[in-house]
Design goal:
The protein is of the alpha/beta class and about 425 residues long. Helix content is about 45%, strand content about 15%. Helix 11 links the parallel strand 5 and strand 6 (about 215-220). The structure holds one RNA strand of 82 nucleotides.
Amino acid sequence: MPTNFIQELKWRGMIHDIMPGTEEALLKESVGGYIGFDPTADSLHIGSLVQIMTLVHFQKAGHKPYALVGGATGMVGDPSGKSQERNLLDETTLKHNVECVKLQLEKFLDFKGENAAEMVNNIDWFCNLSFLEFIRDVGKHISVNYMMAKDSVKSRLETGLSFTEFSYQLVQGYDFYYLNKHKRCIVQLGGSDQWGNIVTGTELIRRKGGGEAYAVTTPLIKKADGTKFGKTEGGNVWLDAKKTSPYQFYQYWLNTSDDDAANFIRIFTLKTKKEIEALEKEHAEAPHLRVLQKVLAEDITVRVHNNEALKTAISASNILFGKSTADDLKALSEEDFFSVFEGVPQARISQAEFGKGMSIVEAMAGKTNFLASNSEARRELIANAISVNKEKVDEQFVISTENLINGKYILLGKGKKNNYILIIEG
RNA sequence: GGGGAGAUACUCAAGCGGCCAACGAGGGCAGACUGUAAAUCUGCUGGUUACACCUUCGCAGGUUCGAAUCCUGCUCUCCCCA
């Protein structure tokens, strides 16, 4: 007997829109449900984490989750939320992306047991479907008028969209139909921008076979300060450790504002209502300890990466933001040093170039490009923002061999949050 | 087709012959405070071999001792009338 999936999402604030009858249908018996992931890059980013969590909850409620990687839909391009026609990815890149995304998704779901998760790729049912078959069997059931009424299409009529993007909703709709017919998939989940596409699917299922089909969408995640969720100056926050190091990943969550932390912990962790309320109380009593942010960051980092990565991220954070000194830095073994500072920008300079020493300005800008120009380095030095091995320095400072840790590397810093490692190669 | 307005640094927006590397606001960065927060206060926000020099105010020329500011042409944008 399944538990109440919809109520679970509701108290977590994860429901934007829901089709009438969905809750009842999901309570009757264990069924299948799916979410599609776009292979637009070779890694998912934390925006997709909402969708992943929805699938996780779906499975926990006793249903069978299907994670669909859009090998076929990726070839078409979803116009939803896009103001311009997209460029198509070539097939090789697409294949590569599909494989990468698949591997990432596999981490989160349980592929064993009665309601084991399943990975599907829509290229498998599209590759043998001919164009004529498609427009006869699928296109015949959905009117152009209906398709044009969708926001994703309507908002593009002024600027234009290709037939390819226009057809997208039919392609995605067919996915739903296919999974509904072959895998007993009765609900499609997704972000709120997917509502239109999902509904085309339920419509197709009803018209083509009279089957039952439902839809649930999650809200777009917003931050209280109005900036985009999941973005930093450096770009997206990725799930791939090669693109966003576990340290940066951990830091992103740790820096969640008080206003957002309570929402995020509901959405991105599996903590129960009781646990979360207790944490909120604790946080309210001692806000400076930032219990919510810490639990949030730890929980997600462990699930996306692993325990080991979390440990390193925490120790890196303690060293960079805690009370540690130059001596603590020097006490780290070389291996620890580099694993702690993985993901921190690095530059290498030859022994010859370093010579007996190097001015701090050259080390920050001229020779390394950590900062855009020597002028900027000077400005920051005057503002007392630059540190060498955690100690503030002034413009006169010259880095000498004595400052090098283990004789070969050194930690430079600008302000509280920017660190750079300079390595002298022998 | 006719008439008018405009194009200034990341964005908005002053300046209309020398005092302009260019007011101000936003954004960004940093300092203080703090909780690696918010709010607040302060400084910075073209480059360099730095009390000077160099490159910048749509593009290309010109006038002048000297122009972002004046003239000519070009490109683009907006508005009004038909």
